[in-house]
């Protein structure tokens, strides 16, 4: 049997991949002659492999020069000397020589102790207050000062007296119709009469003096306040119903009282709305048909103690209409 030689030693071409693996040993002089010869032949034909060889050669020169660097003893000593208290503690306790399990247990105890100290030292009350302040902080874009409506019942606000003839819109009148004010009847011109001769003036013997008139007005006011009929003075006397009421939970009761007033045909009579907030209570100034007055007071009495008294007033209301001012106060 004849042996067939597939290749001869030293006659095989070195590829680029194999050559890259042999470059370091080639520069260190660790290849045999046959491999050196084969690699040098490949380097002559492969430019990329030659560039790679130069890079490795420069790296070896840099490492050789780096080995020649000398570090002073002072620098070495300063590096070895601990600069912090913690490093001194580790050096004295030889923490690096401890077993791994003991190291982990010691580190856990140190971390747990530090956490407990932080929890005890931090003022959590102030932190929570600060958080609440941040959550409830409001940004004021602008401030507008709005004066409250004047209280018509206040002593400082002057009462506006209007004409005694007040026209109220009929409750049963269809919506959309307009109320026309009654035109004044023109007074006929007086006829010219011949001028009479001088006549002596006659003064009635029973004419009341100014002091007597004052006494009559005082007696009329007292009679109205007591509920009796005033003496006939020739002029109608106005009356206003003024009351107070003590309730519990004034804001909620005020809404109910507004509904009662509206149900019984009441209307706002002053400048403020029904149930206007006055202090801790509320204020009602309205007119109501006299026929519904009793039902309204009974319904008001279901929510608290209502006290009403009559007072004389220069403003005369139309027949069948009464005017009321009721102040609702919170029970103390």
3D architecture notes:
With 332 residues, the chain is of the alpha+beta class. Among the domains are: 16-67; 84-137, no CATH class; 236-330, no CATH class. It has helices spanning 16-28, 33-45, 47-67, 73-80, 85-93, 100-121, 124-135, 210-226, 250-263, 293-301, and strands spanning 238-247, 267-268, 276-278, 281-289, 304-313, 321-330. The longest helix is centred in the N-terminal third of the chain and has 22 residues, at 100-121. The chain is elongated. The relative contact order is 0.08.
Per-chain topology:
Elements: H1 16-28, H2 33-45, H3 47-67, H4 73-80, H5 85-93, H6 100-121, H7 124-135, H8 210-226, E1 238-247, H9 250-263, E2 267-268, E3 276-278, E4 281-289, H10 293-301, E5 304-313, E6 321-330
Parallel strand pairs: 1-6
Antiparallel strand pairs: 1-5, 2-4, 3-4, 4-6
Looking at this protein, list some descriptive labels.
single chain, 332 residues, alpha+beta, 6-stranded mixed sheet, 6 strands, 42% helix, elongated, disordered N terminus
Q: Give average pLDDT, whole number.
A: 75
Q: Gap between N and C termini, in Å? A: 131 Å
Largest sheet, in brief, is: 6 strands, mixed
Structural class: alpha+beta
Quaternary state reads single chain
Uncertain stretches: 1-7, 155-185, 189-214, 227-232
The number of distinct β-strands equals 6
Element-by-element helix/strand order: HHHHHHHHEHEEEHEE
Tally of separate helices: 10
Shape: elongated
The percentage of residues in β strands lies in 5-15%
Q: What level of helicity do the residues show? A: 40-55%
Nearest-angstrom radius of gyration?
57 Å
